[in-house]
Amino acid sequence: ANNDMPTALDKEQIFGMAEKEMEYRVELFNKLTHTCFAKCVEKRYKESELNMGENSCIDRCVSKYWQVTNLIGQLLGSGRPPM
Amino acid sequence: ANNDMPTALDKEQIFGMAEKEMEYRVELFNKLTHTCFAKCVEKRYKESELNMGENSCIDRCVSKYWQVTNLIGQLLGSGRPPM
Amino acid sequence: ANNDMPTALDKEQIFGMAEKEMEYRVELFNKLTHTCFAKCVEKRYKESELNMGENSCIDRCVSKYWQVTNLIGQLLGSGRPPM
Amino acid sequence: MDKSMLGDLGSLPPEDQARMSKMIDQLQIRDSLRMYNALVERCFSDCVESFRRKTLDEQEETCVRRCAEKFLKHSLRVGLRFAELNQGAATPD
Amino acid sequence: MDKSMLGDLGSLPPEDQARMSKMIDQLQIRDSLRMYNALVERCFSDCVESFRRKTLDEQEETCVRRCAEKFLKHSLRVGLRFAELNQGAATPD
Amino acid sequence: MDKSMLGDLGSLPPEDQARMSKMIDQLQIRDSLRMYNALVERCFSDCVESFRRKTLDEQEETCVRRCAEKFLKHSLRVGLRFAELNQGAATPD
User: Fold this and answer.
1) Is residue C56 part of a domain?
2) I want to staple A62 with a disulfide (CB 3.0 to 4.6 A). Which of A4, B21, B24, E81 is the partner?
């Protein structure tokens, strides 16, 4: 669908947008990581391994965070998936 | 007073400073927005409208935040308004 | 040891890395400052001077923060000191 | 945030206006993506407490929707008040 | 974070690929330094409470080590899950 | 933060020194504006609790002043200690 887009916008803008998009992904990943660590990992740090409960909490946390990202993306009416 | 400033500094520096200044304004606005949301908006989210109490709290919060920005700007001796 | 490094990497990359490195130092300093302020300075703000207890807490806080930075740097296996 | 808050470009020569305008566009794109990230983080943190299932339940979804809508209304209101204060404080150039 | 998460470069002309690749490298360096800073801040905040001495005691040091190791394992796991979701959501270009 | 903390430029050729110096200046401007924003946020959050009036009362104003002064003194002290540790850790180039 967007085969000939590059002729329409100039290249600097395309690279600028790609850069912002990647910064956004990195930030999404970092916020998700820190939020799920705070929600799932026991702060006493009695051991250096993640236990089973923490691991399954992390998986569900990532999944729910992803859903919230999509849900809010729809509300903002971007019309495209957040990634 | 500063009519002929552009000749003194080179253009790159002017654009660089304008960019920093704008980043600063965006960050001020974002911090203000997040701080006043945390101070004024009820976290239970029982409805999607802001109620009267929240609205007037927001207005006062913005006003006070602005005053704190000015007050600290004076203390820092910038000699210019923060915006 | 690294006398002739500048010929190997191109200059843009060196400046790019120097910039990231400096951003990292600034961020380290800022995080340290905010963390130690939160840990050591009394939030009642009864006076505008730091008292003796606060001052010695700050010195120890900086020292310990520094050690944590080094400790985690070793764990990450960077092989170089964090600064 | 509203473009007008970022400065008055009227007094610049055209080529500088164009450059400044591009810079503002870039800042706005970055800012809106950051806002999106911050909104997701806030509403997730406020609304999702349980991790016994991997999908949002109805209550969580409702909470997230309201949180996001409230935040957007809030943000709009702050923008208006902020612009008023800005105008009051602005000095003629 | 894994480079592949940042996008598919295969469809670009070579010189653009090179430029994009450099940009990604720069972002990754910045990101890993930020991660390092954030990890230090978190483990320091969680593990160091007392300021009666200027050196870490053994208990604090153990806590910091475990905190950092746990965080790294956590981060790895999040990366895997995130990549799966990303792939599921990806549309063919 | 002090410029000297950001690195030793003595060993570079003059044109690179100039470029590096400009880069440091840019970082310092950005950093001081961020510090200003962070200081406002912190002192506002710590000192302003009531929103029944739209202007600061005397007590809030005093609190903000002291908070800002304390933070600046704190920041100065941290800078000194940080520089000492930095020097101790510095390896000759």
Assistant:
1) yes
2) E81
Predicted ipTM of the assembly: 0.86
> Does B25 reach chain F within 8 Å, measured CB to CB?
no
CA distance C50 to chain F (A): 6
Domains and CATH numbers, chain E: 10-89 (1.10.287.810)
Establish if B23 belongs to a structural domain.
Answer: yes
By the 8 A CB rule, do E9 and E21 touch? Answer: yes
Q: How far apart are CA A57 and CA A55, in angstroms?
A: 5
In CATH, what number is assigned to the domain containing residue B34? 1.10.287.810
**Which member of D1, D19, D78 has the closest CB to residue B15?**
D19
Asked if F touches E (at least 3 Cβ pairs < 8 angstroms), the answer reads no
Backbone dihedral angles phi then psi of residue B82, each to the nearest 5 degrees: -65, -20
Q: By the 8 A CB rule, do B38 and D46 touch? A: no
Beta-carbon separation of A33 and E74 below 8 A = yes
Quick one: closest CA in C to E35, which residue? C24
With contact defined as beta carbons under 8 Å apart, do F37 and F26 qualify? no
Look at D6 and B26 and tell me if their CB atoms are within 8 Å.
yes
Q: Which residue type does E2 have?
A: D
Tell me the residue range of the domain where C62 lies. 10-39+51-83
Whether A21 maps to a domain, the answer reads yes
Helix (H, G, I), strand (E, B) or coil at E2: coil
Token pair 């000194």 is at which residue?
F80
Per-residue pLDDT of chain D (93 residues; tens, 9 = 90+): 566 566 666 677 888 888 888 889 889 999 999 999 999 999 999 999 999 999 999 999 999 999 999 999 999 999 999 999 988 764 444
Structural domain count of chain A: 1
Helix, strand, coil percent values for chain B (each to nearest 5): 70, 0, 30
